[in-house]
Specification:
With 608 residues, the chain is an alpha/beta fold. It contains 22 helices and 14 strands. The chain folds into 4 domains: 143 residues, 2-Layer Sandwich (Signal recognition particle alu RNA binding heterodimer, srp9/1), CATH 3.30.720.210; 179 residues, Rossmann fold (3-Layer(aba) Sandwich); 70 residues, Helicase, Ruva Protein, domain 3; 190 residues, Methane Monooxygenase Hydroxylase, Chain G, domain 1 (Up-down Bundle), CATH 1.20.58. The site of zinc ion has 6 residues, from helix 17.
Length: 608
């Protein structure tokens, strides 16, 4: 709003300036006189100097000349116009064929010169010169104000009008961002305390879960400028303008501090170096290096926070995630049941709802959907109602809307259907029940059947009770039993297993193999280690050096097999014995989608 007013004022000032400049260039307004008047004045020696153009003559009159002119004209005009004439020294007259003019001018000693310019050239020049000066000045001004074409500045600055009430189901993420908002609101308070503020915050979550929305909400809540750029625009900008401009852009943002720089879809810049193809790899590396340099050069105390978003955190270059860069990670996950209900509420705010619309029911029939998809459902429903010329959007339209959005999603395999939901619920409950039956296992913190991340369907979070540096053999085998609990549960209930256990099996096998190979925990092979130089910090790409015979290798495999089978039987036994618990918890989980530790405890306590 303020900007608009400034803009209008500037425009008016510019117009006035152009007119003034025009008048300055054309000089004082001259009066036109007839050629005969000119000749008479010339003869009376009333003309001081003349400029002879091809088609006209311009000149200046002496003071006497002005009087003579008014006298000449006085006969036909009133006093008012005489007054007007008197003020003007300059005159213009159209040229008449007069070969002796020059002779006459010489004789009378009048200073004269000739110019070839046409009148219109002067007129055009008198407008163009000031106008072009203004355009240049205006351009500089606008650039300073942060406008400018998309090409020259891919940073989009805007004031965000999104706030937390526009975001639903992300309470945990919002809570984690509160500190950042507090800091942006009053940086000096933090500076005085010497508190360390995160420079970069990375929002991680599946597409459409509200990462961009959340970043805008942070700017809106803190009421600070929001500079946003997408990762791909960042790469493009770097290719186009090079490092210096990138630096300028960051410096420009720093001047607006406190503010937020938001790099959306940062994976386009932040892909691990060396992972991209051959073409453009170097450019990409330079861009990433430049971004890292900028981040390192930033003083967070100045009040600039860099937010970034990605749905593929696993491909980011490790250098981006180091302390001092994007060292704070916030998960923006798929919403749970109540989150979805709230999101339906937000997007239905401006939709006229029929009485039969039940947002809770809608939320219950959209497990796995993200905010963007829910927004889509509401929009589809409203369009359908409009097409049917209804007064308000009814439940039936919403149901159709869900169907439409869901069919779109089925292709990408994101929405879980009822059958899958049941399988996942029993699988996760299996983990939880086994875990709670084994005193040595890490207690269950939370179970959920909402798909998380990209691959896993449901998940169970185990929290170790204390930091552990040593694990005993029995603890390790309990861990394996818990991991296999998901598969055991599926087998008991459905008589067959699904692909849901893939990660569990990987992890269980890895533990079992380490027990045999690394920690000498197998009775058959004895206290031997078959591995050397295992790195201190586990690297995903680490593959142990094999220093044993084929025979030993077979024995290792057999032992691993034995450990796994035993653990699986143990898990199965527990679940068969506690079948009623398994059923009850799974049913509640299907309904609520997420169970916290305390709820789980209550459910299991009821049974005994
Ligand atoms: P992302 O950046 O994670 O891909 P967006 O923030 O661009 O997702 O979300 C797209 C749109 O979906 C938003 O503009 C908003 O209308 C809707 N949306 C997504 N998540 C939420 C949410 N948690 N609450 C409300 N609306 C949401
Ligand atoms: Mg986005
Ligand atoms: Zn599992």
């Amino acid at each position: 709003m303020k900007k608009k007013i400034t803009f209008i004022l500037c425009f008016i000032a510019a117009v006035i300036a152009v007119i003034l400049a025009h008048n300055y260039i054309t000089g004082r307004p001259s009066q036109s006189i007839s050629y005969s008047e000119f000749k008479k004045l010339l003869k009376k020696k009333n003309v001081e100097r003349v400029i002879v153009y091809k088609e006209r003559i311009e000149g200046e009159l002496t003071c006497d000349g002005i009087k003579s002119l008014s006298m000449m004209r006085g006969i036909q005009t009133d006093h008012k116009s005489i007054g007007k004439i008197q003020k003007k020294h300059t005159f213009t007259t159209n040229r008449v064929e007069d070969p002796r003019l020059v002779e006459e001018l010489d004789r009378l000693g009048v200073h004269y010169q000739s110019r070839t310019g046409h009148a219109w050239v002067m007129t055009v020049a008198s407008w163009i010169a000031p106008a072009s000066i203004l355009i240049v000045a205006g351009f500089i001004f606008f650039r300073k104000m942060g406008y400018g074409s998309a090409r020259s500045s891919p940073f989009v600055e805007k004031k965000s009008d999104v706030t937390f009430p526009d975001v639903a189901g992300l309470a945990v993420a919002e809570e984690e961002l509160k500190e950042v908002i507090e800091f942006l609101r009053s940086p000096s308070r933090f500076q005085n305390l010497g508190a360390r503020i995160p420079k970069g915050v990375l929002l991680v979550g599946p597409p459409g879960s509200g990462k961009t929305l959340l970043a805008q909400a942070v700017a809106g809540e803190a009421d600070v400028p929001f500079f946003s750029i997408t990762g791909s625009a960042f790469v493009e900008m770097f290719a186009g303008v090079g490092a210096a401009r990138v630096r300028n852009l960051f410096a420009g943002a720093e001047k607006k501090a406190p503010c937020i720089i938001f790099i959306d879809e940062i994976d386009a810049v932040g892909k691990a170096r060396g992972s991209s193809g051959i073409s453009g790899a170097e450019e990409h590396e330079q861009t990433l290096t430049q971004l890292l340099t900028e981040m390192d050069g930033f003083n967070p105390q100045k009040g600039v926070i860099i937010l970034a978003a990605t749905n593929r955190p696993e491909i980011l270059d490790q250098a981006l995630l180091r302390p001092g860069r994007f060292d704070r990670h916030i998960v923006v996950d798929r919403p749970d049941l109540s989150g979805r209900e709230q999101i339906f509420g937000i997007h239905a705010r401006n939709v006229r709802l029929a009485r039969d619309v039940d947002l809770k029911k809608l939320a219950a029939s959209t497990p796995g959907m993200v905010g963007a998809e829910i927004a889509n459902v509401v929009n589809e429903a409203a369009l359908l109602a409009a097409r049917r010329k209804k007064e308000a959007v009814e439940m039936s339209e919403f149901e159709e809307g869900i169907e439409r959005v869901a069919t779109g999603l089925e292709k990408t395999n994101k929405l879980i259907n009822a059958r899958e939901k049941e399988i996942v619920a029993y699988h996760e409950t299996g983990h939880a029940v086994v875990s709670l039956s084994l005193p040595q296992a890490d207690p269950v913190h939370k179970i959920s059947i909402i798909p998380r991340g990209i691959s896993a369907l449901g998940y169970t979070v185990h929290l170790p009770t204390e930091d552990r540096y040593l694990l005993t053999k029995s603890e390790l085998s309990d861990k394996i039993a818990v991991l296999l609990g998901g598969r055991a549960s599926e087998e008991i209930i459905f008589g067959e297993v699904s692909t849901a256990s893939q990660r569990d099996l990987e992890e269980a096998t890895e533990i079992a193999r380490s027990m045999v190979q690394t920690y000498g925990m197998s009775d058959k092979l004895g206290p031997l280690t078959f591995e050397k130089g295992r790195p201190l910090f586990l690297d995903t790409k680490y593959s142990p050096l094999k220093e044993y015979s084929e025979h030993t290798a077979r024995q290792v495999d057999e032992e691993v097999h034995k450990i796994i089978t035993e653990a699986y039987q143990r898990a199965r036994g527990i679940l068969i014995q506690r079948r009623p618990d398994l059923d009850r918890v799974a049913r509640v989980l299907m309904e609520k989608e997420v169970l916290e530790r305390s709820e789980l405890g209550e459910l299991l306590a009821k049974a005994s």
